[in-house]
Amino acid sequence: MSATYSFFGAVEKSFDKAAAFTKWEKGILEQIRACNSVYQMRFPVKMDDGTIEVIEAYRVQHSHHKTPCKGGIRFSTEVNQDEVMALAALMTYKCAIVNVPFGGGKGGIKIDPRKHSVYELEKITRRYTSELVKKNFIGPGTDVPAPDYGTGEREMAWIVDTYASLKPGELDAAGCVTGKPITQGGVRGRREATGLGVFYGIREVCNMPDVMSKLGLGTGVEGKRVIVQGLGNVGYHSAKFFQDAGAKIVALAEYEGSIYNYDGLDVDAVFQHRKATKSILNFPGATNCVKNTDALELDCDILIPAALENVINGDNAPRIKAKVIGEAANGPLTPEADEVFAQKGILVIPDMFLNAGGVTVSYFEWLKNLSHVRYGRLEKRFTENQNNAIIAQIEGTTGKKVDQKVKQDILHGPDEVDLVYSGLEETMITAVNEVMDCWRANPSIPDMRTAAYVVAINKVATSYAELGIFP
Ligand code: NAD
User: What are the structural domains of the chain?
Assistant: First the structure.
């Protein structure tokens, strides 16, 4: 059995399944589901050897019910219009679930970043940005890209620089893209945000006694056996936060292969090993798997696919042994896999809100850019002075000294990263509980993905209905 839907078709199928559990009329549902604008472009770029390559690229704005649109830019040879549309649609629903006031968008450039020099990548990224500017497909109030598969802070810095140079004097130009380096208007905590959000989201589910007992698992993250696919931005940070919380990372998979060690792998050591040897394989103390996807089928409590879409499908789903699957990547499961897991009672925590940490912190970054002030700058010292006064008062009244370590913790006024982590934790916990409450309130909803879509549809439809744009 293999995937029979396009990626966008799979998103539409999930949408339709959930729409049946809502009260909205057909027209509103059709408007929510459709992609509002699709920009397909081709542009020439001269490569280092003097040849000219015609680059295929996209930007899709799935929904304008709130603006700006928001979503990452992907560099991959797999990029196509269907994929970008699907990812843009997921962004609409994701933003709605985590209460981020943006419409969904996504961009993609069909290249293999590993096959281009840094200079070529810079030329491609800058040219793509200028194409977006020409068609008004980028800007702090219209459409705000971010990193995704194959892109990072470096590319975002090129984008903001190109945008600002084409829009001289635009006060809020830094808000045209998020995921920037700190020096270019980025926010502390953005780099690890998606992985941290994945951790907060799964941890919240693991803390629900009713959910865990149905799966035959104890509550909490500590001691749980975790497998992660993809050691990039999202996968590395997800794995790292689980390890730091006392979970055991028993296997890791990359595109060149996968490794396991049931006593646990040290994520940082594996990362350094891969950096040094250019491969995850042959890590001391670990066993190599024959295929890179073999690790997905090993025994574990939590499986986190954090690489690409459609990696778990009708073919391999029946062999998956995990009890919880946390979709850190976008669309890693096909609808066929969803059906297999629903039948087997495996809990799938859907991408739609689980990997929303990136967009949540992107929202914080955008707010920082519009306010032109670093988080914590105004209140940090004030809070520390207040806390100092309270401790002095307590010590004076009781005649006892507060322990030095405890004192330091209480005194500490919030830095930018503290506020970002706290805002992200609050957002993820709220989102998980909204989705679970929706599911518990209607037990005929078959799975958590459908419950998440129901929550998203209700929010977007309410927003459209309140706008009154359907004459
Ligand atoms: P990345 O480029 O940093 O990392 C992806 C990793 O996956 C790379 O290390 C790559 O080598 C590996 N990989 C590729 N093919 C593989 C395979 N077949 N098996 C195992 N590993 C493979 O990308 P990322 O930003 O971490 O994004 C990963 C996923 O998370 C994507 O689906 C993306 O859409 C999603 N996502 C990313 C963010 C973000 O903030 N970066 C936010 C939300 C969702």
Answer: 37-183 (3.40.50.10860), 193-354 (3.40.50.720), 364-453 (no CATH)
